Amino acid sequence: MQNKGNLYKVKDVLLNEDKIPLNEYPRPTLVRDNWINLNGEWDFTISKVNKIPSSFDKKIIVPYAVESILSHINVLVEPDDYLIYQKKITLPSTMKEKTILLHFNGIDQIADVYLDRRLVKSHEGIMNFVVSFPYQKEITITVIVNDKSDLSYLARGKQTLEPNAYLYSSSSGIIKTVWLEAVNKTYIEDIKFYPDYDKKSVGVFVKANSNQTAKIKINNEQHEIKLNKINKIKLKDFHPWSNVDPYLYDVEVILANDKVKSYFGVRKISIQEINCIKRILLNNQPILLSGVLNQGYYFLGDLTPKSYEDYLFDIKAMKELGFNLLRVHAKVEEEVFYYYCDKLGMLLSQDFVNGGNRYDKKMIYLPRLHRKWDYHHLTLEGAGRVSKESQDSFKKEVDYYLDHFNNYPSVLIYTIFNEAWGEFNPNYYYEYCKRHDSLHLFDTASGWMDAKSDFYSVHTYSFPKMKRPDKLHRAVIFTEVGGIGFKVNEHSYFDGYFAHKICNTNEKYKKKVSDLYLNAMKYQITKQGINAIVYTQLADCETEYNGLYTFDRKVLKLDKELIKNLNEKTYQTFNDQIKK
Fold first, then answer.
1. 425-464 burial string, b = 16+ CB within 10 Å, else e?
2. pLDDT, tens digit, for every residue of 552-565?
């Protein structure tokens, strides 16, 4: 099948050839000193044969998708292409007599890893993975990647071989940081924190290949803990985490000769009935979540930011506009992104990334017309989940998400399925997630195909003022609204123009956005008791032009003070309702 994806229409792009991209330490929740970043220039070639070549005809900049300009390749990848990367590295003497852990934070989609031309690891999916090997001074790393995009059941998010409307070009190959660290024979493999806001304590689980005890310092107060079990620690000078006061406890763990740094925040997210309406509570206080849909696509880098400053820009810009929430939509960001949200106090709703073979369009589009379409109408065929391999793959990914995001206090809500994309057995997965995770709330079926869930989750672009009663009396959240398009031609880089509502002038755009908040959303807060508003969206993306910012983040399409004022009035409406 030919890839009909998009390519940027830009000229004279200045690329920094010298700086190693995304060179900061990539794992803020478990920091070691003895590490090397392997981003930057790798040998590269594209082949129709799954075999290490005798020579390479290109250079690629890792970790940017082959389709992106920042990769220096910028070509469309076909489903039968093999993307072959190679890098020879010299390890420093400080890593002698150590075990080397080689980390791949994200490869799309199927990867074989070779060390000195010997296959050591095969991996499928977007999840990060590690390859370990004993120290040697020089080693050659080869990675062969195949990306089926939406022809596979594997998680893909909004990538497709035929981009259109709200679906975007594939991002193939190594798309996240590659790095390595050196560890001792006995070392700390992982740390998990389980805060208890009401008891002013934290559970600490340190995973290690040892039966010894470890020492942990929390804000310089030292404790001795047992490994591979949860240790409950009462917190001295208790200080909770919130979006307005994002306080983080500093942590240091010492096991034999291994020492790592970490952090955690203590917060509670819950739902409680107040005046006959189900409300979201943060630290036992009602809160209105006012946020934006964050597609996580970046100018010139596709799924990967040019630098971590891109993360900071988006987070800070949305906070300055008065938003308190980002919905991370159909992708997983680098871990540094979540640390920035923890540090800056940006609340997050995190999607589980959709997969499954191509979906039945009836199951995707007909439920928009009427909410009577619920989980009873789901079929494995329609969800692209017929095969056991597809179902098992999703189960593995769910376990990964519940583990991977555990330590970030900013992550409040998980979206298990979005708009029936790959949705199957939703009631089972809701119950499964609730059994295994008490620190988060779960939006099982964002948009439609309703099922057991903590929320009644609504997507509405056409009739945002229409009342939508929930027979199950859950907390109501509007997880996608708006989608109002205004195209700034000189900052548009793809042909076409999709938006849920198109405005030809800035004045019409301003009027529609203002009316959405001051009229429709005000009505929904006062009459329906909604708890969350997620506006579509943070920035334009390829042919989708309904962002508050242009794709390159150069232009904010509305006056900053106007957006802040709309948010302030919306919060005030909510607070007035709570007081009644």
1. bbeebbebbeeebebbbbbbbbbbbbbbbbbbbbbbbeeb
2. 999 999 999 999 99
